[in-house]
Amino acid sequence: MKHVGAIKVFVSTSRANERMPHTILILGGTVEARQIAAALAARGDCDVTLSLAGRTGNPVGQGVPVRVGGFGGVEGLAAYLKENAIGLLVDATHPYAARISTNAAEAAGEAGATIVALRRPGWERVEGDRWSEIDDVPAAVAALGQAPRHVFLTLGRQEVAAFEAAPQHHYLVRSVDPVDPPLAVPDAQYILARGPFETADELALLERHGIDAVVSKNSGGSATYGKIAAARALGVEVVMVRRPRLPDVPSAPTVHDLVSMATHMLGPVAERGV
């Protein structure tokens, strides 16, 4: 992590002499992004926009203006940053959104905007965990082996189709939005739910469905850790997909730390220009 003091503060040169609000774009899709947006908007001197990829059909209310949809890669995002005089770009996407994070870092450089990122710490293996750590989803399919198993899939709905390559297993799939089309396998059940999930409820779920393998990304945080704790308690294997490599940009591990970093960069609360 780069020291906060070394971060430049971007000021729009077109109206630099006016006390205009700071313009901030937050790349979201996580609970933390919504919390960061609320904290920065509460300053009163910031124009905050939250960007969502649009993959979730019914997102929860965000509390600030929202932009939905992609930007068209690095060039499209850089153009948006320039056209909207974005001074601060906050990458608060999911830890596995490596493409978006990489595009954000490159676009910020092209547009001359400051970038900071939320880097939520991953889960650490503790005594009693039975983790098989692998690099990607296809490797997770292979890690389940050939013998039929009862598998709990807790990946993004766009990624579960890979498990059609192993139709011998019995799948329990949980997602925020429906898996459409359903998996082309003989036995799959679906749960539509949005976290957080408590450990006691996850224990009951794993036991009720006779789960002997959980497939998960190492998302970190507390909202979905219940399944990991439940698997540990029951001695169930967790096939854990490792995190991708992310760009090296100034970052913070928590919402509080990132808001503090942004506050340092933005300076004292300024009155809006008239």
Protein model, in words:
This protein has two domains: 4-121 and 245-266, NAD(P)-binding Rossmann-like Domain (Rossmann fold, 3-Layer(aba) Sandwich); 131-241, NAD(P)-binding Rossmann-like Domain (Rossmann fold, 3-Layer(aba) Sandwich). Helices cover 27% and strands 20% of the residues. The chain has helices at residues 31-41, 73-83, 98-111, 137-143, 199-208, 226-234, 255-266; strands spanning 22-27, 46-52, 66-68, 88-91, 114-118, 131-134, 150-153, 170-175, 188-192, 213-217, 237-241, 251-252. The strands form two sheets. Strands 3-2-1-4-5-12 form a six-stranded parallel beta sheet, sandwiched between helices. α3 (98-111) links the parallel β4 (88-91) and β5 (114-118). α1 packs parallel to α7 and α2 packs across α3 (98-111). The protein starts with 21 loop residues before the first strand and ends in an 8-residue tail after the last helix.
Key descriptive features of the protein:
Rossmann fold; 2 domains; disordered N terminus; 6-stranded parallel β-sheet; alpha/beta; 274 residues; 20% strand
Rounded average pLDDT: 88
pLDDT under 50 segments (min length 5)?
A: 1-20
Number of domains: 2
How many E strands? 12
CATH superfamily of the largest domain: NAD(P)-binding Rossmann-like Domain
Radius of gyration: 21 Å
Strand order of the largest sheet: 3-2-1-4-5-12
* Principal-axes shape call: elongated
CATH class of the largest domain: Alpha Beta
SSE layout:
Layout lengths: L21 E6 L3 H11 L4 E7 L13 E3 L4 H11 L4 E4 L6 H14 L2 E5 L12 E4 L2 H7 L6 E4 L16 E6 L12 E5 L6 H10 L4 E5 L8 H9 L2 E5 L9 E2 L2 H12 L8
Parallel strand pairs: 1-2, 1-4, 2-3, 4-5, 5-12, 6-11, 7-8, 7-10, 8-9, 10-11
Helix pairs in contact: 1-7, 2-3, 5-6
